[in-house]
Design goal:
Layout (H helix, E strand, L loop, with lengths): L5 E5 L4 H12 L5 E4 L7 H6 L8 E4 L2 E4 L1 H11 L12 H27 L2 H26 L12 H7 L2 H11 L10 H12 L1 H4 L5 H43 L2 H26 L12 H13 L2
Parallel strand pairs: 1-2
Antiparallel strand pairs: 1-3, 3-4
């Protein structure tokens, strides 16, 4: 590979950093990938991208370029020696490529995030919107590819990089959930394109495998479960701590003050009732069939609360 003085700040699982790596590989540009810890951002990252403080950042001969789409276009404009063009040469085709990249970035990708975080009752309507978006992308693929393997034709182009860089995550999420985002029967062009893109050497050498994504997602889900449990236990504990002083006050308050105090107690009990329904799943205890942490915390007060 040619060139020197090129560094990329990113993480291996970032689709945005992967875009930059793929573009540099297509241009046969040698570069140093400097892995960043986003939970403890390095001085180099903060200095290189002081506005957004995020990856990726391309450092070329000491000059910093930020934002993945801007970086990919910079790479295409800067390294022209090997004859490979990421964006089409025709002005109209370039505009079309930028349009579909912007559509994916601004409309479709946020919709996927919304779908992944949606409640079960919200998913049907969101899936319809996702399917509509896939229909648009299928039409775009047919027009842009002209029967070839990629949006860019015979070779990976701008739209391929922008959309394809997210399919490591998308494929892994689909396998874990047992559902496919792209179905051959509905979008045959995109279905074949995903395999072609992910199996291309310039992509395989950059993006983690599906198994690696699944392993990371499993760890992320486990951490999220622990955080939710910790937050829930804290909320129940706080609710109990709010109820206890009210019960003490009720014991000593004069008759005329009890009505208002009972109303406050009833308000404090409501979230605890909701918590019991969610946690017990129709069983005897917060912990289900057996006494658990929440039962112990709440139950230990019930003896003197019952009067």
């Amino acid at each position: 590979m040619a060139s020197s003085g090129v560094q990329v700040l990113g993480t291996i699982y970032s689709p945005y950093a992967n875009r930059v790596q793929i573009a540099l590989n297509l241009k046969s540009v040698d570069f140093e990938f400097i892995t960043q810890n986003l939970s403890s951002k390095s001085d180099l990252l903060l200095k290189s991208n002081p506005v957004h403080k995020k990856v990726p950042v391309l450092i070329h001969d000491g000059k910093c370029i930020c934002e993945s789409l801007i970086i990919v276009q910079y790479i295409d404009d800067t390294w022209t020696g090997n004859g490979y063009s990421i964006l089409p040469s025709d002005p109209h085709d370039r505009a079309v490529a930028r349009f579909w990249a912007a559509y994916f970035e601004d409309k479709f990708a946020p919709l996927l995030k919304e779908l992944s975080a949606a409640k079960e009752e919200e998913k049907v309507a969101l899936k319809e919107r996702v399917d509509e978006g896939l229909g648009f992308l299928e039409e775009a693929f047919v027009k842009c590819s002209k029967g070839k393997a990629y949006f860019g034709g015979d070779d990976i182009g701008y739209i391929d990089i922008v959309i394809g860089s997210s399919f490591g995550w998308i494929t892994a999420i689909g396998k874990m959930s047992g559902s496919q985002l792209i179905e051959e029967a509905k979008t045959p062009g995109l279905f074949g394109w995903v395999d072609n893109f992910l199996s291309n050497d310039v992509v395989k050498n950059v993006m983690p495998t599906t198994e690696m994504f699944i392993e990371l997602l499993t760890k992320m889900q486990a951490k999220a479960t622990l955080r939710r449990k910790g937050s829930f236990d804290t909320n129940v504990h706080n609710g109990t701590m709010e109820l206890v002083p009210l019960m003490r006050e009720l014991k000593s308050v004069q008759k005329e003050g009890k009505v208002a105090l009972i109303e406050r107690i009833e308000e404090a009990i409501v979230p605890l009732e909701e918590a019991f329904v969610k946690c017990s799943k129709g069983k005897s205890y917060f912990g289900g069939d057996d006494i658990g942490y929440v039962d112990i915390v709440l139950g230990s007060y019930m003896g003197w609360m019952s009067f």
